[in-house]
Design a protein that fits this description.
Elements lengths: L11 H12 L5 H8 L4 H4 L4 H6 L4 H8 L7 H8 L3 E5 L7 H4 L7 E6 L8 E6 L5 H16 L3 E4 L5 H11 L4 E4 L13 H9 L3 E4 L11 H11 L3 E5 L6 H11 L3 E5 L9 H8 L3 E2 L3 H17 L17 H4 L10 H8 L3 H13 L3 E4 L2 E4 L4
Helix pairs in contact: 8-9, 11-12
């Protein structure tokens, strides 16, 4: 389904409307997308309360939306006017085409660095924050070969495998993209600030869906994983424990119809168990970069013609596999993630992934200390 777009260039007030939309509590990318399929962003501000209510908005959200003031977002718009800093709304022609095909794609992206690199062929590489020497050797060798093949390397700037693949890509003369779980004025971890600047200088980019001054929070990082996989034609996992954030990225890749690759390890290596599990579930076992490049060549024609997938309007909450998580949340009480996991009987990593999906649907809110249910859920 095509979104309704504007033919004329976007004004500053219209860009402020996009920022206003993503700032509304409980309006995730999916709920926002449903209205943007019917109305251009400039038309949305003129919608009646009845039209917004039909789109699933509650009275508080409608009141806050209609109380729009462009001046509230001027400092953020000014951020986008700085050198090598960009704000891309979903309708922007430079918005990454692969990411646009993802259900729950961010309505607004903040980018520091090159815009051109965002639409080039990318492979995501993720893995352990504490890799073994085998893991280090594997990711360095694979990254060098992938860069030589012309691929852009995308990861999350975290310690361990993420940082190693970013560094190796740069040392190999390549370009690399880091997706952050915070605003781009808050490079995290701070020890990688110099690495982040080098990435930009060498033609890469930093990416975030969060406003520039947003501080890093634990729940932001699993959420950013859908962007890492969504930007890329495939995701390579190099060393991951069975309960690892890297497996969240792999799960998103599967849901986004992207390929998942995994590097095997010794059966006694705890960090290899997540990769072994992925291989058992159908991920392609990788011995060298040729295994990846061969598969990517097969995927490209199908991905180029794949339509934008939007959630079915008729899906009911009771049909969703994570509906039982909502039973553990209240609108007036913060519930910690470990409590939700304990009462639902699900592993914490699985709970984290499903909570992010609920948040993108606009059904829950992440707040300090855990999550609360929105009144519209």
């Amino acid at each position: 389904m095509r979104w309704k777009t504007l033919e004329s260039p976007l004004s500053q007030d219209e860009l402020a409307l996009w920022l206003h939309l993503v700032a509304l509590p409980g309006i995730g990318p999916i709920k926002g997308a449903k209205l943007l399929q019917r109305f251009a962003i400039s038309e949305l501000i003129s919608c009646s309360s009845e039209q917004l209510s039909a789109g699933g908005w509650n009275e508080t959200q409608i009141r806050q939306w209609l109380d729009f003031s462009p001046s509230n977002y001027q400092s953020i718009i000014d951020w986008g006017h700085e050198k090598n800093q960009h704000i891309l709304h979903f309708d922007h022609p430079a918005y990454p085409s692969l990411l646009r095909n993802v259900v729950g794609a961010p309505l607004v992206l903040f980018i520091a660095g090159s815009l051109m690199v965002m639409n080039e062929l990318q492979l995501a590489i993720v893995g352990s924050r504490k890799p073994t020497s085998d893991g280090r050797d594997a990711v360095q060798s694979l990254t060098r070969e992938l860069v030589q093949a012309g691929l852009v390397i995308t990861s999350g700037l975290a310690a361990g495998i993420d940082a190693i693949c970013h560094q190796t890509a740069l040392q190999s003369g390549g370009r690399t993209i880091a997706v952050q779980g915070c605003g781009l004025n808050q490079i995290y971890p701070s020890k990688h600030r110099a690495l982040a600047h080098q990435m930009i200088e060498q033609g890469g980019a930093l990416v975030s869906e969060f406003f520039p001054d947003t501080l890093p929070r634990p729940e932001h990082f699993p959420r950013r994983n859908r962007i890492i996989s969504g930007l890329s034609v495939g995701t390579l996992v190099v060393e991951a424990a069975e309960k690892s954030g890297s497996l969240i990225t792999a799960r998103y890749a599967v849901e986004q119809n992207r390929e998942v690759f995994a590097v095997p390890g010794r059966i006694t290596n705890h960090n290899a168990r997540g990769c072994h599990r992925l291989i058992q579930q159908g991920a392609k076992l990788v011995c060298d970069a040729a295994d990846i490049i061969e598969e990517i060549g097969i995927l490209l024609p199908a991905m180029a013609t794949s339509p934008v997938v939007q959630p079915k309007q008729e899906d009911s909450l009771s049909d969703l596999p994570f509906s039982r998580l909502l039973d553990n949340l209240r609108s007036n009480e913060v519930t910690a993630i470990d409590v939700i996991a304990a009462t639902s009987g699900l592993p914490v990593q699985e709970v984290m992934t499903e909570l992010i999906t609920l948040e993108l649907e606009g059904l829950i809110l992440s707040v300090p200390g855990g999550y609360v249910r929105t009144r519209s859920a």
